[in-house]
Amino acid sequence: MDVQIHRGPDEREYVDRKNAARAVGVRPATISTWEARGRLTRVPGTPPRQPMYALAEVIEAEYQSRQNAARTAGTTSRATRHFDEN
After folding, report:
1. Which alpha helices (DSSP H) does 1-86 contain, by range?
2. Which residues of 29-61 are buried (b: 16+ CB within 10 A; e: fewer)?
């Protein structure tokens, strides 16, 4: 999986919609859905058709989505995927 990451002037890592989806293993439409539901926010000032997202927020949104799915399905939290903080 080849993800293009852009480093901003604040030294944070940013990705566009397609690379955000690749980074967490979902479709680009899922990233748009998370944005519409308020789980993700675009980087201010990015063009409407080329939004950028903070990579850390994308990873957190994916984690929260999995936790929510596990909770509503009655799955234990041990069955969900966890990310290592490196």
Report:
1. 17-24, 28-36, 55-73
2. ebbeebbeeebbebbeeeeeeebbbbbebbeeb
Record the tokens describing residue 14, joined without a space: 């940013």
pLDDT tens digits, 17-72: 999 999 999 999 999 999 999 999 999 988 888 999 999 999 999 999 888 888 88
Residue 12 has φ and ψ, to the nearest 5°, of: -80, 160
The predicted pLDDT at position 12 comes to: 92
Residues comprising the chain, all counted: 86
Domains by residue range for the chain, with CATH: 6-78 (1.10.10.10)
